[in-house]
């Protein structure tokens, strides 16, 4: 048994006629609305042969289509990337902009996230360009430039309220992940470090660098510690360094992802926000939490 999920972004409501038409074409069960005009689902007994053609067609009307096995879709752990996933920015790009090397660093970031450059080498190069930047700029960037991705609060709060363990695992920096993890209520965070001396960045990251393989290692370590399986995990990310993590998790979601990532992941969210990850698990909007209190 499979579940077909249809999800749209805030700008375009989901047409009930579209959900009914697709259900009829695929011989599905009754349509269940998880959120009016936003998210609907229905069950089918076999994977449709024209799945990806329909997916492509729906991109033109601003709708995400995800088909996944019904069994085990509600997860017991969330493993999330931070930059351009739980927050709307790339932290290193914001620091670089403050340092006057914004365009150069942003270009390297974009190429690394699209898999065109080795992640670790690209990180060292970008951090090197921050040499001499006042450490106080980190706090300024956090205060004035970093914004949460829509749905971030609801995603973490709802999953934690349901007993799931939430880990923020980033190729970015602990100076940012520690604050974002605390703000959102993550149970733990892992990231790289920015070395400093005399109140200035040295232009070097701490070693070893947390990259693509380290994200998979985090998944394996945390699940082992908590007695979970990789199938219990929902992972979310957008860049090439997230790809192995997304493939290893029971449900790997490519959120507004780079083309090289989306091409290799079946669970793609291009139009919805982070609440789409709750809809994919069968949570209705009326079950969303907005805080752990």
Commentary on this structure:
The chain is of the alpha/beta class and 293 residues long. The chain has 2 domains: 1-71, Alpha-Beta Plaits (2-Layer Sandwich); 75-293, 3-Layer(aba) Sandwich (Rossmann fold). The chain is 37% helix and 22% strand. It is built from 12 helices and 12 strands. The chain has helices at residues 16-25, 51-59, 91-99, 102-113, 119-128, 136-144, 152-161, 174-184, 212-226, 243-248, 259-262, 276-279, and strands spanning 2-8, 32-35, 39-44, 63-69, 77-80, 165-173, 188-192, 194-197, 200-205, 233-237, 251-255, 267-269. The strands form 3 sheets. Strands 7-6-5-10-11-12 form a 6-stranded parallel sheet. It has a 4-stranded antiparallel sheet with strand order 2-3-1-4. Strands 8-9 form a two-stranded antiparallel sheet. A hairpin with a 2-residue loop joins strand 8 (194-197) and strand 9. The longest helix is centred in the last third of the chain and has 15 residues, at 212-226. The protein is elongated and about 65 Å long. The two termini are 36 Å apart. The mean pLDDT is 96.
């Amino acid at each position: 048994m499979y579940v077909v999920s249809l999800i749209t972004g805030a700008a375009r409501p989901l047409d009930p006629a579209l959900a009914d038409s697709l259900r009829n074409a695929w011989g599905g069960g009754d349509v269940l609305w998880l959120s009016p005009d936003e998210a609907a689902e229905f069950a089918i007994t076999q994977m449709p042969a024209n799945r990806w053609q329909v997916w492509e067609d729906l991109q033109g009307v601003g709708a995400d289509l995800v088909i996944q096995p019904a069994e085990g879709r509600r997860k017991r752990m969330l493993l999330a990337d931070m930059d351009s996933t739980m927050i709307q920015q790339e932290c290193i790009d914001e620091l670089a902009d403050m340092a006057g090397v914004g365009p150069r660093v942003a270009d390297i970031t974009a190429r690394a996230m699209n898999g065109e450059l080795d992640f670790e080498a690209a990180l060292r190069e970008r951090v090197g360009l921050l040499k001499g930047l006042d450490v106080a700029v980190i706090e300024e960037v956090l205060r004035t430039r970093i914004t949460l991705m829509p749905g971030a609060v609801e995603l973490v709060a709802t999953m934690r309220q349901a007993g799931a363990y939430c880990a923020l695992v980033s190729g970015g920096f602990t100076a940012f992940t520690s604050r974002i993890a605390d703000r959102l209520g993550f149970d733990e965070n892992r990231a790289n470090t920015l070395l400093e001396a005399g109140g200035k960045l040295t232009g070097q990251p701490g070693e070893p660098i947390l990259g693509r393989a380290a994200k998979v290692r985090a998944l394996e370590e945390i699940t082992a510690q908590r007695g979970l399986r990789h199938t219990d995990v929902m992972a979310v990310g957008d860049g090439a360094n997230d790809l192995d993590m997304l493939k290893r998790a029971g449900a790997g979601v490519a959120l507004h992802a780079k083309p090289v990532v989306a091409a290799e992941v079946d669970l793609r969210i291009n139009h919805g926000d982070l609440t789409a990850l709750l809809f994919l698990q069968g949570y209705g909007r009326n079950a969303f939490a907005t805080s752990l209190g």
